[in-house]
Amino acid sequence: MKPVIALMGRPNVGKSTLFNQLTRSRDALVADFSGLTRDRKYGEGKVGERPYVVIDTGGITGDENGIDLPMAQQSMAAADEADIVLLILDARAGLTGVDQELVSLLRRQSIPFHVVVNKIDGMNSDTAMGDFYSLGIDPLYRIAASHNRGVRSMIEEVLAPFPEDEITAEEQAHGIKVAIVGRPNVGKSTLVNRMLGEERVVVYDHPGTTRDSVYIDFEREGEQYTLIDTAGVRRRKNVKESVEKFSIVKTLKAIDDSNVVLLLMDAHEGIVDQDMHLLGHCIEAGRALVVVVNKWDGLDDYQKDRIKDSISRRLKFVEFAQMHFISALHGSGVGHLYQAIHTAYLAATQKLSTNYLTRILEGAVSDHPPPMVNGRRIKLRYAHAGGQNPPRIVVHGNQTTKVPASYERYLENVYRRELGIEGTPIKIEFRTTENPYAGRKNKLTQRQISRKRRLMAHVKKKK
């Protein structure tokens, strides 16, 4: 098993910066203000041949209220499940009362921890460390996470007591990646917690609670999954903070990184334009899709019928996607999502044989031939698989650049019906068969040249 390291400390001491250095990534959002990180964020790193898992957590102030309280609970949950805690302190701020309280808390709960003093760049490190020696902890690690100074030697010493184990295939497997996306405050984090059966991410009755995409690996009935909780995406004109802009970029990146997308909508508000924009991005990315209408509880029969009519009318172009009506808060209908996820994932990743795809193409062309272009019929000769997630079908023929969009949709519907593909878009690519002799001038033999001359002379004599 890989050792698990949790990063704890006050807000804005550099935990997310150190997380990015330890994982050699830019997965954690970093900005120069406190309270940016709210959920537990997991990442994997390696120093030499030693792999490890790092958990980034929200800052603890000691007087939590409002949204800060569940953030602090998430931090303590990370400390409980970690093998070692790195308590990050700020060299520029010196030793504070909150730092001392955190040290006392970790000692009382017998949680193994190390103290890491960050932001020593530009300072006399010996002078800066004076206050921290009063904690009676040895050693004290001094680093500058933003410049990656002292980070490697620190993590090597922290990992030294842990045995070196090989990474098993089970640890490498992440299973089906499921991204949960939607507008702010539609219940994404509540759904994540309900699917996991624990309070894994911060839930608060305020839009924009989730700021970063949180990847969560778990197992259910022998199947491996990775749930991705994402930040809500608002209309561009309403996005003012730069942090929110980065959050939206992370959400769109999570869609591209996933296998299946759960698009969450609010039943009380119905389908709005931003839902349609997000739906369009999911289809453009080619991801398998499940449309989930949340907050279904509490609606009367008239409201439910009205919402269903609106959905069937406005989402007619995504009839391939399964539709589920749930209550993430109370759990009704949530269990059925796993079957929809499996159906969409298997359809998006199934293997397609060239012979079968070509036979379907021949039947489709026989029933409804392509149109004539400039007096010549478009000829579609054969098809083969071009990729998975989404299923990509490559069709070869002549004049394929002139195939109309209506005929492309016809072929997509035929393939969807014949292959039984449900829950994922199908991408069809057309490729024109190249003429191997195009642009090549035929070189005549001496005999052909002599014959051509005799013919030309005969033609001139007749004239």
TrEMBL record:
GO biological process, one term: ribosome biogenesis
Annotated GTP 2 binding sites: 182-189, 229-233, 294-297
Record GO terms (molecular function): GTP binding; ribosome binding
UniProt organism field: Aequoribacter fuscus
Gene from which this protein is expressed: der
Keywords annotated in UniProt: GTP-binding, Nucleotide-binding, Repeat, Ribosome biogenesis
Function field: GTPase that plays an essential role in the late steps of ribosome biogenesis.
Residue numbers binding GTP 1: 9-16, 56-60, 118-121
Full protein name: GTPase Der
Pfam families: KH_dom-like, MMR_HSR1
Family note: Belongs to the TRAFAC class TrmE-Era-EngA-EngB-Septin-like GTPase superfamily. EngA (Der) GTPase family.
SUPFAM superfamilies: P-loop containing nucleoside triphosphate hydrolases
PANTHER family per UniProt: GTPASE DER
